[in-house]
Amino acid sequence: MMLALLASVTLVIPAYAWDFSASGSMSAKFEQVTSKDNASATATTAANFSSGSGGISLKSSHTDGDKTLGLTYTADVDTDGDTLGTDTGLDQTLSLAGSVKVGKWTASATASQSLMEDGSHAKVADTTADGSSEADAEARVDGFNGFSVGLGAGPGTLTIALDMHSGTTASALGEDWGASFDAATACGSGTTAYGVNFSGNVGVDLSATLGMGSSSASAKTCTGNNSSNTFASSTMGIGVGVPMGAMTLGIDFESTTVTGKAGGADIDKLVKGGTQVSVAMGGIADGTVTAAFASVSSTTGSGEAEARTGLEAGWKTTVGAASLEVAYGSWTDNDAAGGDSSSDIEVEMSLSF
Question: Domain extents for the chain?
Answer without folding.
Answer: 1-25+54-119
